[in-house]
Amino acid sequence: MRITDSGNQDMTRRNISFFLFIILCLLFFSCEKKAAETKGIILGFSQIGAESAWRNCNTRSVQEAAAEAGIQLLFFNAEQKQENQIKAIRSFIAYQVDVIAFVPIVTDGWENVLEEAKEAGIPVLVCDREINIQDESLYAGYLGTNMLVQGRSSAEFLIKKYINPDTGKFFTRRNQPVRIVELRGTEGSSPAIMRARGFREALAEYPEFEIIYSESGDFLRSKGYELMCNILEDNIVFDVLYSHNDGMTLGAIEAMKERGIKTDEDIVIVSIDAEQAAINALIRGDINCVVECNPKQGPEIIRLSQLLAKGETIPRMIFMIEEVFTEWDDVLNIGTRGY
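The structure assignment produced for this chain is given below.
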């Protein structure tokens, strides 16, 4: 019996070793297959710049996702100039990359260079900002944020704050229309266009709200500070600041605080992006609402680029999942939700 038991044990060990070997082989070949699918893929990615924490996070997300997937990334910073971006796309075409992805600085003026990419047989993925183009076959699809919804969400917060949901009655301390100052993004960019449009569409049925000032701050903190300084020097009286990004918002808050304005008491502030500095300001009470604009698009950009490199089609419009954070939320649960 002992000899038989020993023989069975030896057989059991051999079986276990064999199955472990098979599992390891399957894992190895699975990894090899995955590597083979991405090996040799070259992605040309043109970013518009490094003007904000949001943009830097967006860039890191793409770079890290490409490195993790083993994709060669040709990265180009356009430094806020469309002509630089067009040159970058043409350099990608000359280099014969497999896929081109780019964040368009403005909506118009892309037809010629995208025609060149199409003629070269290189699929193009538009990221973060939308473009205005008649022939939509010139690019494979769009991945980014729903900027129209971001504008609407900003307005919906104000409606909820100033209008009683039970009675429908409007209430302010002055019992007069709410005066809104708007700091817009870069002129001609899809975020500036869509965030302004969505905001106005949502407020269209409410004459209680009045936009008394609207100016472009180019998504820059320095411009937000400068514009707010001008507003205060011109003695423009307002109740709400609606800013198209956190950078301009934080600059404007700095200017207001220098002049003794208590942003946690005197002004209602709505901002878009959700960088950590803005989340912190929300927690302190300096901002009342932060509408998220998700910058962590890298993994999805890489996934779509892999599909395009294999000749597959992708959806025309893909939007990132985003949230809205307000003064009514549990701040302990949103304290580290920024970037």
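Interim note for the steering committee: Residues 2-38 form the longest helix (37 residues). The chain is about 45% helix and 20% strand.
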